[in-house]
């Protein structure tokens, strides 16, 4: 029995020693992470962070981000000029009315967590041969398509 206890104790010490040896490797892997901090932010990125992300807890993706778009669609990124117009319309027509009626906490809690803006329609591959104009993922993320062809009329065009 003493031999078995001795073997178990020795095995425990060896396993603990091997685990502590991995700690340096884990720290090295963390230091060389492929996930980078936000770099090269444009004025639009700062505007989105100040006007949408911080006050309403809504991320807006206007650059092409493969993780945010279904691989079933063939699409392209949205132009910055159309993206800024669209998010301003969203803020004016959707966020501000709800904020005035229900408060900012309500909007933060019940609005979608992400808006994804794509430049072209989401073309579905054959045999469907259709296109998608918008999509939602469980009410958490809304994907808007065809931003590059979205028509934003100006006031002078409306009243000319």
Mean pLDDT: 79
Q: Quote the beta fraction.
A: 5-15%
Give the domain tally: 2
How would you spell out the order of helices and strands?
HHEHHEEEEEH
Poorly predicted runs of 5 or more residues = none
**Number of extended strands:** 6
Task: Return the CATH topology of the largest domain.
Answer: Collagenase (Catalytic Domain)
**Bulk shape:** elongated
The tally of helices reads 5
Strand order of the largest sheet: 1-2-6-5
Oligomer: single chain
Instruction: Specify the CATH architecture of the largest domain.
Output: 3-Layer(aba) Sandwich
Distance between the termini: 99 Å
What do you see in this structure?
With 160 residues, the chain is an alpha/beta fold. It has 2 domains: 1-34, no CATH class; 43-159, 3-Layer(aba) Sandwich (Collagenase (Catalytic Domain)). It has 5 helices and 6 strands; from the N terminus they run ααβααβββββα. The chain has helices spanning 2-31, 43-56, 80-102, 104-110, 155-159, and strands at 59-61, 114-117, 122-123, 131-132, 134-137, 141-144. The strands form 2 sheets. The chain has a 4-stranded mixed beta sheet with strand order 1-2-6-5. It has a two-stranded antiparallel sheet with strand order 3-4. Helix 2 runs parallel beside helix 3 and helix 3 (80-102) crosses helix 4 (104-110). It is elongated, with a radius of gyration of 25 Å. The N and C termini lie far apart (99 Å). The model has no long low-confidence stretch (mean pLDDT 79).
């Amino acid at each position: 029995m003493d031999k078995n206890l001795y073997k178990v104790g020795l095995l425990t010490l060896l396993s603990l020693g091997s685990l502590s040896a991995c700690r340096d490797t884990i720290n090295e892997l963390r230091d060389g992470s492929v996930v980078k901090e936000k770099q090269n932010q444009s004025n639009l990125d700062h505007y989105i962070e100040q006007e949408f992300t911080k006050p309403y807890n809504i991320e807006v993706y206007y650059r092409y981000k493969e993780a945010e778009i279904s691989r079933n669609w063939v699409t392209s990124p949205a132009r910055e000029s159309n993206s800024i117009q669209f998010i301003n319309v969203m803020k004016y027509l959707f966020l501000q009315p709800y904020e005035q009626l229900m408060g900012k906490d309500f909007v933060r809690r019940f609005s979608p967590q992400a808006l994804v803006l794509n430049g072209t329609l989401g073309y579905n591959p054959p045999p469907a041969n259709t296109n998608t104009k918008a999509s939602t993922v469980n009410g958490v993320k809304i994907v808007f398509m065809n931003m590059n062809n979205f028509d934003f009329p100006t006031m002078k065009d409306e009243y000319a």
